[in-house]
Structures are given as structure tokens and as C-alpha cells.
Amino acid sequence: MEIISNPVELAKKLVSIRSESGSEGEVAEYIFEYLRGIGLPAEKLEVGDGKVGDRSGGGTGAGGVNDKGVGEGRFCVFVAGEGTVLGRDKILEKNKVLENGGVPGAGEVLEGVPIEKSDSAAERDEVLEGVPIEKSDGAVGLCEVLFINHIDTVPVGEGWKHNPYGEIVDGKLYGRGSCDNKGSGAALLAALLAALAGRRRTSGSNLTDQQVLLDHKKIDHVRLPGEKNRKTADLKAGGSAGKKSARADSVTDSTTVKSVRTDFWYPSICFTIGEENTFIGIKTFIKKMAQDERFKNIKYCINLEPTELKIVRAHKGQIHLTIRAKGKAAHASDPSKGENAILKLNTAINNLREFGDRLAEVKHELLGNSTMNIGVIKGGTASNTVPDFAEMEVDIRIVPGQDGGKVVEEIAKAVGGRVVGGEVGAETVGAIGGRIVGGGTGVKGGDVETMSTVGTSDSGESAPLEVVVNHIYSPVEMPSSSPFIENFRKILREEGVDSEPEIGGYTTEFSDLAEAGIEGFIFGAGSINQAHKIDEFVEGEQVEKLYMVLRRFLGD
Question: CA 556 to CA 554: how far, in whole Å?
Fold first, then answer.
């Protein structure tokens, strides 16, 4: 495949590939091949059962069929990082030692891996000449960092003046997903390419990134778990003939390690799917992280989303509920023989209004107060029939310090209902629960105690409303004094970018990562005000600036 190094052109390429939620296969495959093409050990993570148009996450995409009519399974693309726990200053200090003739020199062993002496010497986390190098205060190594970037989009819609599959006009890249979230994803991919090429380029070389890449594409430098050693097409004698590498089984021959392995150690990365509706991709990846030792060092995350290159360190959480009432159908000529589910739901609505007033009293110094909105109501089949079913959808936004599970329990008591939920995702509200009837994030355990009961069971007895938990996303807050943020702000200042942390008014995939104990923030090119709109666009200048920031972060 063609390896595009220009971040804006790469973003345009990604935008040209349709990837509505549920139909991400083609763009995921492109990213997978790109990462493999630049020498990173990309892998695919199947989501759901991998079938065409899988809906195990409740997706609302285009049926798992791309714009070529090709059915595809659903998968995320990830790279399990390798790296150092050294901070940036320590890395530079080590570089100076090596550049000044210190040990180990060219072809010798650092962490058991033969290396080449270069202007960007080895970043390692173990031993230099037998002396452990301590991690400095606030230092962050690449092996501790995870990048998240979702690749699905909302539907294209109608009424576009510009090409919804990519058009550059007056420095702006138009197209669905350009802002949310392919511009940032392209910047990351191009920065990885540049950083890899920078590590491979010898001091004084005038080769372009593409030329350096092509020179090294002859050699498969990483063997993935379970794969057999792959023969290279152009092995030459020479290289490091010294001590055998502790990681020599990752390549075809330990004598080729010098040509194959470089001193670029990379972060973990996941290009997720399903972000626009269910977060099924990130939830699946978090499960993978919990089971895979390669992710044990992850402490920090940069969630790429459109923030206009501003660090967003806090945002609200979200609870999405469906509240259902059951009644008994009867002819409208004698309503007394039935039980009206709509009227029972109306009672619950009145109770929710009072609960919403109490909820609004919970305030956060940065994010304001918690909120609740009843956005959808459904019920009945005909005006001459007593409705036996009615439901409403409720959106609650919670602030840091609130427990989503407890909020759900309070709502259930307010409406006289029983909490039920799905089985996908983390144990977000494991302390409460009910029988599983579908939905999103897992709610498991015994029934919630209720204040009252409404509705009618099949036996004619009174039954509670069902409070279905579709999902709970935790609120996020990271201190502005976080060393991780401070280190990143230093890079931003050096690149001339406003680095003062801000807050967001939305919910992101970082919610699930924060719940898993990972610190981080949201950052990326483009404005959230452009997301999901007709004629969505991202400023090419912002994509390029993000690319430069990420290159610096990666140590290039």
C-alpha cells in the first residue's frame, strides 16, 4: 500500500473511506495495513462475534456493509507498546552519553538488544552498564502511555455543499469524520511514521521518511505472538555480530537485529470502533488490556478527540436509561377493564421532575451542576385501545464525585422501579442490579429495593417499572498539576500552542479508561462544534500542528 506521510493528505485518505458505526471494516483494515507498513506490530481485536453488521453493541450503522457493498466483521486495531519508563530529560541525558562515546556503543548490548549509535540513542528501562537508571519525578515513558482514537463516524446525511468523502478548500479538510475523528488519527499515524524514520535515519542522512521506510521494509522486524519467524527477502551479512539479543527470537536472525531493531520504543495504541453509539470498541479493548500482560505498564492515556489543541482534563459522565411501564390492554369503550401504562409512566415522569430538581443541586466547581433530560416517550398502539406498554428514555449527566450506580438506584426508588441492565462492559454498577433484559453496560446482582410498585405482572399482581440501564459512563477529572499534563504542556509551549487545561461538555471513551484507573486527558485537532454537522471540517493547520506535537511527544 502507499504510505502517506503528509498528515493532511492522510486525513483526506481516511475521510474518503466510509466508516459509519457498524461499517468500520474498510478503514480499520487500511489503518492496520498502514501500521504494519511502517513497521509496527498492529493486531486486530474482534468486537462482538465478528459477523457482518454485528449488533452486539447495539450499533446503528449501515449494516456492516461498506460503500463498495462488501460485508465486513467488526474489529479494533491496536498496537501493544514497548518502551521505557524513562522521562524525556533522562532520555536526552542518555543520548548525550552515547553521542560522546559513552557505553554501550554501536553494536553493543543495552537490555540485550544490539543497537546502532545515532543522534537519537536508545530509550530503555532497565540497565545501562549495569547501573539502573531511575525514573525522574513526573517522568513518563512511552510504554506507560496509551493513545485512543475512534475511527467510526455518524451517518453522512444530506445537504452537503462540499464532498462528504474528502475535499480540501481554503486550508480546510471537509468530509464526514474529518474533525471527529480522522484528522487527529491521521496526525498520530504520520507522527509514528516520522518518529520511526527518525530513529532509523543515521546521523547526517538526507533521506526522506519514505526513503528510510523503504530501505527498512525489506526486513520484518517484529514477530507477533504465535507467529513463526518470517524469512526476509533481502538479508545481508553483517550487522551486529556480537552478543545474542534477549529478544532475538523476535526476528529471523540475531545477526540482523542491528538493521531491524531501532531505538524507537512506541506507545500502546488503539483505533476503536462504535464510539458514536455504544463504546463497544473501547469496552472490548479494556477487557483485552486486563487479560494481556503487554498492557500491564499502562498508566496514562491521551484520548484523541476534537479539542482545538487544548488539553481537556475534565468532563461529565453520562447515564442513559430506558424506563418501561407495563399495563393491561382493553377496549377504550371500557378503560376500567385495563390498566393504562401511559398513565403509570406519567406518574413516574412527575416523580422524575422532582428528582431532577434535587439532582441539579449537585454542583462541581469546574463542570457546573448535574442535569437530567427526558428525551423520548413511546406508548400505545391506537387511540381506541388502553395501552399495555409505555417507555421513556432519560439522559443524566453526572459530575466528578457522583457514583453512577447510586444515582441509578435513587432514580429507581423515585419512580418505584426495579433496575435491570445489560451484560456488556465493565462492572460499573455491580452493587445494584436486577435481571438482565438487554441494554448496554453491565448491571448485575440482586433487585433494588423500591419505595413503591406500579404496573401489572402477568398474574395480575402489581409489578414495578423496569429501569433499564443502557450505559453508565463515569465522569472524568484529572488535576491540572498532574505531572503527565505538565510534561505535555511543556511540549505544547515549545510548539507555540496554548497549553492551559480546560473542561469539556461531552462524554468520551476516556470515561471507561478512567474507571479502569488510568490517568489522562482528551486532546486533538478540530472543534467539537464541527462534529456531526453537515459540511464538517477540520483546519489543515491544526492537523499539522498536532502532528508536530505528537512527533515531539514520541521523541522525534
Answer: 6
Please state, in angstroms and rounded to a whole number, the distance separating the CA atoms of residues 451 and 209.
66
For the domain covering 7-83+141-223+263-314+477-553, report its CATH number.
3.40.630.10
Q: Which three cell numbers stand for residue 301?
A: 492515556
Beta strands at 385-386 and 330-331: parallel, antiparallel or unpaired: antiparallel
Query: What 3-state DSSP class applies to 180?
Result: helix
| Strand pairing report for 371-379 and 389-398 | antiparallel
**Range(s) within the chain of domains with CATH label 3.30.70.360:** 317-474
Residue with cell string 527518525? 198
Between CA 425 and CA 46 the distance in angstroms is 15
What's the N-to-C CA distance of the chain in angstroms? 24
- Residues near 119 by Cβ (< 8 Å), separated by ≥ 6? 95, 99, 203
- Please give the Cα distance from 353 to 210 (Å, whole number): 61
In the 8-state DSSP scheme, what is residue 133?
P
Tens-place pLDDT, residues 36-72: 999 899 999 999 743 333 333 333 233 333 333 333 5
Cβ atoms 56, 48 nearer than 8 A? yes
* Phi-psi map region of 375: left, alpha, beta (phi>0 left; psi -120 to 50 alpha): alpha
Span 217-274, pLDDT tens digits: 433 333 333 333 333 333 233 333 333 333 223 222 222 222 223 345 789 999 999 9
Nearest to 511 by CA among 186, 185, 150: 150
CATH 3.30.70.100 fits 317-474, yes or no: no
Question: Where are the domain boundaries for CATH 3.40.630.10 in the chain?
Answer: 7-83+141-223+263-314+477-553
